[in-house]
Amino acid sequence: MHQSPPHKPGPHYEIPGTPIFDGDRARKGYALNKMCFSFNNAENRAAFLADENAYCARFHLTPQQCRAVRNRNVLEMIEAGGNIYYLAKLAGLLGLGVQDIGAQQTGMTVEAFKAKLAAAGKGN
Amino acid sequence: MAQIVGGIATSHIPSIGNAIAKGLQNDPYWRPFFDGFVGAQRWLSRVKPDVVVVIYNDHGLNFFLDKMPTFAVGAAAEYRHADEGWGLPVAHPFPGDARLSWHLIDSLVEDEFDITSCQEMLVDHAFTIPLSLLWPGSAHARPVKTIPIEINTVQHPLPSPARCFKLGRAISRAIESYDETAKVLILGTGGLSHQLDGTRAGFINKPFDLMCLEKIVDDPEALTRYSVLDIVEQAGSQGVELLNWIAMRGALSGRVSRVHGNYHIPISNTATGLLVLENQPPLRLAV
Lengths: 124, 287
Known about the structure:
The complex is a heterodimer.
Chain A: H1 23-28, H2 30-37, H3 42-50, H4 52-58, H5 63-70, H6 74-79, H7 84-93, H8 98-106, H9 110-119
Helix pairs in contact in A: 2-7, 3-4, 8-9
Chain B: E1 2-10, H1 14-21, H2 31-34, H3 38-47, E2 51-56, E3 71-74, E4 78-79, E5 94-95, H4 98-110, E6 116-118, H5 125-134, E7 145-151, H6 161-176, E8 182-189, H7 206-218, H8 221-224, H9 228-235, H10 242-250, E9 256-267, E10 270-279
Parallel strand pairs in B: 1-8, 2-7, 2-8, 3-6
Antiparallel strand pairs in B: 1-10, 3-7, 4-5, 9-10
């Protein structure tokens, strides 16, 4: 007789190209997200810009997280447990908007990424 | 007795705040979005709600990942916005209604919703922008009292669509059992389809959005049959803010009339939606 697999709570399937910010990512990314949360404060944003390495060290970022921040690479930051809402605060501080980081993650130019968004409105 | 006059759902993209601050309402990029709100403002000036229950999700202003309530209810006399880190102008404060908040909290917990109550609560753009869109130019004289109800759409596991719909039903029971006279509007914010993260960033799903805009009016239970991951797949990882719309719809009666709506792609990375639903009294059988 066919036996159904034991029920495991939590997300059950992969959605291609779509990170699910779950407990595993939340644990892995805690230091990075906590640093980004601190950017709600203007003095902290200035402190990061004045000495980025010291600021990352203050929040005990992992080497992987430090590297991702240094590379300004959003996919690497996500891989290191970053949550996009918190990463957007860092991106804003670096002068990058959501179209810039969308273009970066999809390997498109910003113009092409914006054109793709606009094209989604055409037709049905 | 308090009465729910209807519900509104709208997108809450941060850049709308900047567009308002810069007066870009008639700019060709923004106009199809802002023009959609005229019908909603007209309806509000007719029904004149006293209190707005705002169902939204916080994006790392009030709640960090150290403590993440699934459902949180504001219980303050006033709610303040603050620096969100990404350059949005800070909105003027919003008056609360602490007595109704505590009635909601008492009633929801009695109804087995074990919410987090917040006597201090910063509200982010997901709360402030929809109110600015619906009552433009009211920063210094807010015409309505507000009660924030926050749903976790940031850190999985998220509450299911069915659970959010039931939360809405429980909100409606709470309001209808309130002993003061008040006209209450339910506002659900966020969505529609969009995704900011991953190699699928920029994902927008117009057919799914249009289906939701139709179903949520007359057959909202159809949306409660999706899982959270189904919605992430169909609407994008941030399109899951649809949960706030589903909770709003749960707080209305079985019968609603669709007063007004708008759908426009894109604002920023998002397919934007607006829907105004007026509550209809339940059908009574003739005797």
